[in-house]
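DM from R.C. (forwarded with permission)

"hey, sorry to bug you on a friday — could you get me a structure for this? deadline for the figure draft is monday and I only need the backbone to look sensible"
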Amino acid sequence: MSVLYVFPVVVVMVGMWVGMCHHLRRKRLQLISSLDPVRDALAVCRMTYFVEFPFLSKKGLEFALFKTFAIPTISKVLAATRQFSPANVIKRYDDTHIIVEELLSSHVDSLRGSHALRRLNFIHSHYNISNDDFLYTLSTFILEPKRFAARFGYRNWTENETTANFVMWRSIGIRMGIKDIPETVEEMERFSLQYEADNMVYAHSNRTVADATLDLLLSIVPACLRPTARVFVYCVLEERLVHAMGYPRQPYFLISMVTGTLHLCLGTFVEWFLPPRPLTWSTERISMEVEDQGEEKERKKVHKLRYSEYKPESYPDGYRMDGLGYAPIGQLGTAFSGDIPCPFFSSFSNKKVA
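My reply, with the result:
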């Protein structure tokens, strides 16, 4: 068949495919917009994190934690725990990953979600952490996934997604006992930027904790490519963060090339040529069993991980909620009381936890 006949057919088929992808993505946005960002905050967040932006959300949360290592008061506490030695850093990563996914999968006042948060509070109770450091860490979880989507994704987060994410993490912060949490995303962003300007400076502990984490994250890369992959990571980091970690600043052309390539692959290509991920293809790894065994049995239950490819070395056969982290096994902390936006009602509730 002549190229003159084939080319128009290919163009028409590609155009139809692109049109279908855009149509399906508009339908998905309509679905997200139809949900109440307060009442349905958890549902919106699960859709955003595990369906719409699974890769960027995961990396955004990892980057959120990584940024906190550039605050000396935080990194000194972490370095003193000795959890970032080669023998311990894998378990700490697994613990953090599991607790975060548990909190993203269950409402903070549900039985299972409360157990995850109370275990987190118990772990933190062993260290002297200031309220401002807690608040800054919370701000990175609220802001960085959204920023990663804006930098590299196929679209920005919608207002519903931004509000739902803020409502969910603010609720978690209240149950963690964090004081003076801003009431809007804009106020939280202003606090975060000012805190970085005042406190994000170089310290040896920053580099120690950051290097251990970066070595772990790059361990999946072939050894011969790790130096190059490390340079790519440097290119993604903000200038103030690079300085606070003591990492070398990369040439502007290389930063532009790396970030541009990431946006091309994760943003432009996805936007034009890939349909939205089906809701049934959620990357959520936490298996949600029905909570019908009561407080004590639920606390001691061994939770299985849903997908075979997600088997942390620390918990190959599952995990108990009261066994996560470097803290005595079998104990949970308390969930602090406070008013939170309840996901079961469309307005702010006065629900409290004793």
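R.C.: lifesaver. The beta strands are 302-303, 319-320.
me: no worries. The longest strand covers residues 302-303.
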